[in-house]
Each structure stands twice: as C-alpha cells, then as structure tokens.
Amino acid sequence: MKKKIKGHALFRKQFARTIQFMARRPKAPLPSQPIQSVVILARECYGDCILLTPLIGMLRKEYPELSIYVVAFTRIIFDFFNADPNVTAVYHAKRDLHRYLRGILSREFDILFNPKDHPSTHFLLQSMLIRARYKVSHFSPGHEGIYDHLIALEAHTHESLKNLAFLDTLQVSSSPADCRPYLPPMPVSAEIDTFVNSIPEKRYIGLNISAGHAGGHRRLEQWGDLITGFPHETFIIFSSPKDIDEKRKLEQSCKNILVSPATRNLYEVGEIVRKLKLLLTPDTSLVHIAACYDTALIALYREYLIDRLQFGPLSSIQQVIVSPSPDIADIDTETIAQELENMLQSL
Asked: Mean pLDDT for each consecutive 10-residue tract of the chain (347 residues)?
C-alpha cells in the first residue's frame, strides 16, 4: 500500500514537471477591472465545495454582472454547484466532453483560479488546457511557471480563508466574517418538509454516525451509550445512504431518538441542522453544514493536526474533541458526554 502511495506521488511530481515545461508562460498582467468572467476549478469533496461558497458569494456581491463558471471533476460536485444561483454554469471535466469543449475549452476567460495548494494531475492539466488571460493558484514549487500569480499563505491556513485570498488578487477586501458558507437550494421531499416543520426550534440534538474516511466511525454501542446517558434530551440521527441500516438500528434501540426520514441531498440535511440546538458529528461535511447556519457544534477529529487546521469548524459555538489515535472510536465516551453536558449547560 505504501509503495502504491509513493508511486502515485512520484507520478504526480513527474506530471507536474511535464506540465510546467509544456505550459510555462510569461506572466501576464491582471485584466483591467471590472472583470467579465472567471472559471474556478472545484475540489472533489462536499466539504471542499461548501468552503468554496464564501468566495463565490463574495464574487457575486462585488461583481453582480460577472460570469462565474465552475469546473467539476465528480458528479456530486457538479450537482452541488449546478444548484447554486450565484454560478453562471457548471461543467464536468470528465463527462459530457462535447459540452465541456464547447463551453470551456473553446472560450477564453479573464481569470482562472485553482484553489489547490499542491500539484494535482487533473487540476494542472485543466489549468494548461483552459485559456485564461490571468491564472491564479496557491504557491507550490509544482505550480511555478503555470500561473501568473501564486498566493503565498501560512502553511495549513483554513480552506475558507485560502479561497477568499483569491479576492486579494482583485484588490477586493474580505474578513473572517465573510467566511460564512452556504448551501445552494436543492429539492426537498414532502417527507422531509413535513418532518422539518414538525421540529421545534433549538430543542433537539443532531448526531451524525457517518464519515467519509477511515477512522471516522464509532461503533453503534458507543453511540447508544452516549444517547442513553442523556435520557431527558431528544436526538435526531444523520447518516449517509450506505449507513441507513445502522441509523435505523440506533433509532430502534434508544427511546429518546426521534425517528427521521432519510435525507437525499445536503440541502435536506441543512434544513434539519438549522433547527437543532446542537450537532455532534465526526469530521465530515456536516461540520461545514453546521457553519452555514451557525449551529452549535461538537466535532470529533482524528489525531491529524492538518484536518483541524485546514478544515476545522466555523460555528461560533464549538468544541473539538481529538482522538489519541487515527480512529475516533478511541475517544472515550465519557469524554464526549462531559463535553456535551458542558455545552448544553452553556446553551
């Protein structure tokens, strides 16, 4: 496994050098203001795209007539930004290539922005293929010569601040207050709508049992012990589609869980999260969904410091609990219970 990872890293490094040789260009001046078009390469995970929304929202606010194009590399990110009214159009770089060729590769844009701070095969390739008068990314030796401007920030700066740093290129000021992300409006089923309208404001605790990475799950009995330790509180369980059976088992095993319908998109999740008094979740996109509504948050992180620095919570009221290992199952349930009790008292 380690050899495979090293092999991928070596390939990316060699590919970056090749792109640097092929795409090296003399640095161009920033297009005259106001800019007319910008194309943004969107990262591949839900959390990444939620943390890109503050930049998109600010661009729309500062440049009401600006054409904002997003290039996605996965279907879920395409669907996410396709629902965003601030975005002019979204294109999938790996599917519907005829549409991508006609809408992106056959045109020239004022500015291109690559939000990654390290060489990425797909992002470097598209940065070379897409024609833009001015190209911007973050500093990395593998990015030199490809972009007209490289943003230099401290290592492991929060992802939302890294994205907003693009505005400095345009001489547009921003502040931490501008980091509030948002969820684009998506369809809400009648079942979810009925459920949301039945929930009293700021009364229930949300608990997410799913995670998108290794070491991000706790055992059902651990969650059950925590929930039964708060018999006077009511919990709502969130899960990804693949964990729906686990959600149902937990709902059946604890009397103080309010049975809830399965959510079909992030916006449905957000509609529930905005009405909670508190959300407890592993390090997943729900950390950032909580930030969209400034919902109080307890987040469980693995021992990796980078995860907490670059993708930490933005809710005003928050508590981060760090595992002593790469697995959040190793966080003692009593520790979580004590932090939950403390936050409930403060609320």
From this structure: 55 68 73 91 94 96 96 96 98 93 96 93 92 95 91 93 94 82 97 97 97 91 97 97 96 97 97 98 97 97 91 95 96 97 95
Task: List Cα–Cα distances, 64 to 59, 81, 135, 164, 183, in angstroms.
Answer: 8, 18, 21, 17, 19
pLDDT score of 337:
98
pLDDT at 34: 85
341 falls within a domain: yes
Indicate whether 185 belongs to any domain: no
Token pair recorded at residue 337:
């219970």
Residue 210 and residue 312 in one domain: yes
In a domain, 184, yes or no: no
DSSP, residue by residue, 226-279:
HHHT-TTS-EEEE--GGGHHHHHHHHHH-TTB---PPP-SHHHHHHHHTT-SEE
Residue 28 within any structural domain of the chain: yes
Evaluate whether 284 touches 212 at the Cβ level (below 8 Å). yes
Residue 275: the pLDDT is 98
CB count in 10 Å sphere of residue 267: 19
Nearest CA to 226 out of 303, 317, 340 is that of: 340
Task: Give the model's pLDDT for residue 191.
Answer: 98
The number of residues in the chain equals 347
- Is 292 found in the same domain as 218? yes
316 and 202 together in one domain? yes
Q: Which of 120, 150, 178 is where one domain is finished?
A: 178
Assess contact for 74 and 97: CB atoms under 8 A. Answer: no
CATH number assigned to the domain comprising residue 318: 3.40.50.2000
Q: Which two tokens stand for residue 236?
A: 């709502």
